[in-house]
Design a protein that fits this description.
The protein is of the alpha/beta class and 280 residues long. The chain has helices at 13-24, 36-39, 56-69, 83-88, 91-100, 147-153, 167-178, 193-197, 203-212, 239-242, 253-275; strands spanning 28-32, 47-50, 76-82, 105-110, 158-163, 184-189, 219-222, 226-229.
Length: 280
């Protein structure tokens, strides 16, 4: 990638996409709906195809079928989208493509809201975060949708979480996804300085804290069953992650404690699932 690049200061999206491309190579077709990556006018040498907001997965599947019909078995089709186009508006298309096990790599760049249009609430937004579509003085009352759990339930060949503070882990997973056949899903956490409300020089630190506090564990799942936890977090207190973010400015000490209990419960569940290994 090369200039111009006009995303917000501190945006981690370009770095995440660069790491994905470095792992996959340039023999790809990128399919993306409207969002931060498309609107940032990032320049690259790969083929790019714009899609409507709700059907990037379907268009990517069609593109892969067209390439196979022409005898091209090498080009990787990557649907690179945001959480709004994955968790919400495009959810039906993602589920349908996963159920059909279409041979595409689907990457969700998750900045936990509709950030390109002004930080509107999505189902990826965390509990008690404030967004521009919340009533004044009110925070989101629902927990974040468990998109990885949903992908596991589809029993797809490969699904993994990754984030830019752990670049080697991200690139290894992108390369593994490239070399796997069928529907592959990468869940990439992308801290957003503008929407989350932290200083633009803290993007990598926020990415790291999300992992160390167990808010965003790093793991991968093969065939919906065999889970591997790729990094043992330090268990940093959750408040260290929440404090720098203005979107949690309304949160109370009691709510922080409840949030921490929820994070701990989810981590214990993850450990339980990772302990099971399919013997077949």
């Amino acid at each position: 990638m090369a200039p111009p690049y006009d995303s917000c200061p501190g945006c981690g999206l370009a770095l995440a996409w660069r790491l994905v491309l470095k792992a996959i190579g340039d023999k790809i077709v990128q399919v993306s709906p409207p969002g931060c990556l498309v609107m940032s006018r990032t320049v690259s040498t790969i083929d790019r195809l714009g899609s409507p907001f709700g059907n990037a997965a379907m268009l990517a599947g069609g593109m892969k079928s067209a390439l196979l019909a022409q005898g091209d078995t090498e080009t990787v089709v990557v649907a690179y989208t945001g959480d709004g186009a994955t968790f919400d508006i495009g959810f039906a298309a993602v589920s349908a493509s996963a159920e059909r096990n279409e041979d595409i790599l689907y990457a969700c760049n998750d900045n936990e809201a509709y950030q390109n249009t002004g930080n509107q609430r999505s189902s990826a937004a965390p509990w008690l975060s404030t967004n521009t579509t919340n009533p004044v003085g009110a925070a989101k009352q629902e927990y974040k949708k468990d998109i990885m759990g949903i992908m596991m339930a589809h029993a797809i060949p490969y699904a993994a979480t990754a984030t830019i503070a752990f670049p080697d882990d991200l690139m290894r997973k992108a390369e593994k996804a490239k070399n796997t056949k069928g529907f592959r899903f990468l869940h990439l956490l992308d801290p957003c300085p503008t929407g989350w409300g932290f200083n633009s020089d803290l993007t990598i630190e926020m990415s790291r804290l999300a992992v160390e506090t167990r808010v965003f564990p790093l793991f991968e799942v093969d065939n919906g069953v065999n889970m591997t936890i790729n990094y043992q977090p330090k268990g940093t207190p959750l408040v260290e992650y929440l404090r720098p973010q203005r979107r949690f400015r309304e949160i109370t000490e009691e709510q922080v404690a409840e949030f921490q209990r929820n994070v701990d419960r989810r981590w214990k569940r993850l450990l339980y699932l990772a302990a099971y290994k399919d013997s077949d």
